[in-house]
Amino acid sequence: MKISKLVAERTKDTPSDAKMRSHILMLRAGYMKQVANGIYTLTALGQKTALNIENIIRNEMNSLEGQEVKFPVVMPKELWDLSGRYSSIGSEMLRFVDRTNHPMLLGMTHEEAAVHLAKNWVTSYTQLPFMIYQIQTKFRDEPRSRAGLIRVREFVMKDAYSFHMTQSDLEDYYYKVHEAYERIYKKIGLKNFISVQSDSGMMGGKVAHEFMLLNENGEDRLFVCKNCGFRANQEVAECVFDENKKEDCLPLEEVFTGEAHDIEEVSNLLKADQKKCMKSVVYLKLSTKEPIVCFVRGDREINEVKLKNLLKDDISIYDTHGDDRFVAGNIGPKSFGDNIEVLFDISLKDLGNMIVGANKKDYHFKNYNLDRDFEGKINYVDISKIQVGDKCPHCKSTDIILSNGVEIGNIFQLGTKYTKSMNMLVKTNTGDEINPIMGCYGIGIGRNLACVIEENCDDNGICMPMSVAPYKVEIVPIRYDLKEISDVADNIYKSLEENNIETLIDDRDAMPGVKFSEADLIGMPIRIVVSPRTIKENMVEIKLRSSGETFMAKIEEVVGQITKTIQSSI
Amino acid sequence: MKISKLVAERTKDTPSDAKMRSHILMLRAGYMKQVANGIYTLTALGQKTALNIENIIRNEMNSLEGQEVKFPVVMPKELWDLSGRYSSIGSEMLRFVDRTNHPMLLGMTHEEAAVHLAKNWVTSYTQLPFMIYQIQTKFRDEPRSRAGLIRVREFVMKDAYSFHMTQSDLEDYYYKVHEAYERIYKKIGLKNFISVQSDSGMMGGKVAHEFMLLNENGEDRLFVCKNCGFRANQEVAECVFDENKKEDCLPLEEVFTGEAHDIEEVSNLLKADQKKCMKSVVYLKLSTKEPIVCFVRGDREINEVKLKNLLKDDISIYDTHGDDRFVAGNIGPKSFGDNIEVLFDISLKDLGNMIVGANKKDYHFKNYNLDRDFEGKINYVDISKIQVGDKCPHCKSTDIILSNGVEIGNIFQLGTKYTKSMNMLVKTNTGDEINPIMGCYGIGIGRNLACVIEENCDDNGICMPMSVAPYKVEIVPIRYDLKEISDVADNIYKSLEENNIETLIDDRDAMPGVKFSEADLIGMPIRIVVSPRTIKENMVEIKLRSSGETFMAKIEEVVGQITKTIQSSI
């Protein structure tokens, strides 16, 4: 491809809020162009890289006996009613009516479509396990698209669905996919990634892992134990506490605290450690519309994902002002009525002589002891966020770190949520009928493309890994207007293309400095410089973008040299 | 792939209205499954075939220096407002608002997106010509989806856009794409196709061709001259008439015709040839909301596409009942008022002594002569449909045929409609700025897949061409339960897969008859039968699905034989 014809707008203008290197570089190097908020066109540079990533994924999926299918983007409401997700998913799912007024949606994931496809085909256990996957465009009406291809509204995703007779068969397959994912990331050029236990969210099911690229600009917050290697998303990591030493109970004391309402104000006023205060947070349960009161140690925060999972319900923060069952700002443990659940985080267990709200305007209690002072059953649950200094739930070491990360893939053990609700039945070898157990496995192509650039770049631009580079070579002729230069450059170009080595040639009448800096910016792995000085000696210069390594090659040996370089680096 | 695991529901149930063989066979053989009206999931059989077709198209596009990009499916209204198409396209375009109430649409075609991508990049004539293309899912809210993948609502399409400095450069490129399309169709296994001049419809521009598969169930009606090869869609084919001999004008005569209103009734009543009658059809122009009166020879029909193109406006049939400017059933030539246009088809030119409506209830005129009796300017235009027996507009032969066809691709010379409306400017070599001239080129993947099957099947099922077959070989072991059989079959399977020859193996415990008939149905090009009888002689039977040719091969020579067979048939 001639650079003069390559539709790729190289620009110095990047959005002022662009923080991630991949976002800035993909715009500056012309890998993509924004069309709307969270919606991009990929140029040939972007799309050819994406296709290379897709093919690496495709090969790994095929190696797991995956069958590539294609589900529709547009699906009818009825199909999603079967699983209940048409109503349970919020406005990130795009819904519309077609010209006959039929309700339709744009699929964000295809569990229902997968069951629909396989359901009538499958009758006997001899047909399982099997896995079907697709690579397809998806749309998610994301409220906060950001960071270029990292969080978009329209994206291409590989989504796979496996079906099994037993949980152990699912688990075997699940860990094979886990390994395949690790191979995929390594092949496309990612290094700094881990897999973490995750929340299974709207997908249903229990065991799930997210693959995370560790990156300071990532949105996800990860917990990693440096001692045993255990890792989890901060959202779901279990909290483990030392047993608190029982203190002698001191007499309960009501103290005036006036305008001091939050933990910081109260602990400052009473000169107490936040760990000796009890924090209250009131939520509203979506299904019952009733408040739920949560208490947690003053130095910790409620983890809403854990709470949602515990309640199996959606929640929102509840404003207690104006609800006369509560004294806003002075809420402490008590029974608030039959319909109001009260939960205590396990961080509070056995803590004695606490400062708590007195459920009376302007007052708190000192020396509150749950065992002594709370009437009713005490319900201890794990609903707080893990913090630095906490113990690893696995090995109990405190050598843990919290790091930001970008999700680059996820795998879920779905169980029978979809096969049960859609009544997919398979005969076992004893003649019984069961609902098969599903797994599902996703990788976003565009986000991985961005992550490849995130991890493979320097101050001068992108350093495309050989495995996914849109072109393997860029030829930079100095003085392309001179016939002796263009003849050599064009001949090398032709020979490389004939050997199926995709090549860019900078055929423009531009200054060498411009050509070099743009070649660095768009970042093809191998650069060949054809200059008047070296061709006199029948030589050209070959430079590797990533290592900076430079060497000379005889013109007639260039193709052989390049072929060797490519083979050794894939 | 083991057939026991291949998710592909083979069924005898096909929709009762399914007429096209491809529709019936793709359902029966499990190439696809319907999800909603005009929306299908492709199984591995369907999707692998589609991917093979995509790659053949991709290679041809790349050979024309096409750059593969990816435009978004979802686009904002503003982009389509620039070209005016947001309002000019009807309800087949799906529109919706996103969560911020912003109007969006699902793209059916991407001229605006192509100009958006290239517009800021291009500045100088040295960057042209160039072509960008994508292979992407599209949605068209089709009112009458039919015939399986032939007319659907969701489909994958290759759409390409070229940009040129001059009309002659566009034309050169346009005909190169024309040739590439012919190569694509031949490569994927289509034989019976032609290209015809077509209406450029909503795309704008003038010259356009449709590639048509001649097929009795096709929706399009094609005109082909057997003498000179000229061909066109019946919708746009120019009509050519012999000069009519001038007759002596007879005296105008008013005759009572009572309830006889249409041409058949009037010609029967007056015992006249329909060719001697003048037919009137009244339309309403969309932009002016005024009627327009068209006259045509009694034996011919108005071609509404030609009329729309002539008027550069949309039209609908106008009911003249209740409009006192017209006498419904007795309309004849006259002036109907300042705002009402009157058009005469060229079939009427120089015809004398005609029967026409008298614009008076229950009466017609005999011996009406336009030259003598019509007051005002006579506006002859070409607005009738070409018919069998008409002359070829090119060579004037009457040896023409009309055939049904399925559109399998189209190419358009777009002109500057989009570059002008979106203000894309390029400097010429003299420093002037012009709007580049565009071409656009589309092929629907799914429809071509259906057409491949339409042309490559017999009474027993599909005969997949080697070039696009999802698997090249199916191994049919007889008595797979016998170890000596499964060993041989599995070994051949393994060797073929190791040689990158994608293979199906029927590993089921089923009757040979079932295996053979299903192998015929799904139609892989090569079948290998491993049977107890032949393996005694160290042989297997190889059968070619398409020709029925059968030969024996030594077990150790199978892979070599198959490789040779595949190479000789691609």
Q: What would your notes on this structure say?
A:
Two copies of one chain form a homodimer. The first copy, chain A, has three domains: 3-72 and 108-237 and 402-454, BirA Bifunctional Protein, domain 2 (2-Layer Sandwich), CATH 3.30.930.10; 253-381, YbaK/aminoacyl-tRNA synthetase-associated domain (YbaK protein, Alpha-Beta Complex); 471-569, Rossmann fold (3-Layer(aba) Sandwich), CATH 3.40.50. In chain A, 26% of the residues lie in helices and 28% in strands. Chain A is built from 15 helices and 31 strands. In chain A, helix 12 (483-498) links the parallel strand 27 (473-477) and strand 28.
> What is the CA–CA distance across the termini of chain A?
22 Å
At the first level of CATH, the class of the largest domain in chain A is Alpha Beta
CATH superfamily of the largest domain in chain A: Bira Bifunctional Protein, Domain 2
What is the name of the CATH architecture of the largest domain in chain A? Answer: 2-Layer Sandwich
In the CATH hierarchy, the third-tier topology of the largest domain in chain A is known as BirA Bifunctional Protein, domain 2
- Count of DSSP strands of chain A: 31
Sketch the major β-sheet of chain A: 9 strands, mixed
Unreliable stretches of chain A? none
Number of domains of chain A: 3
Helix content of chain A: 25-40%
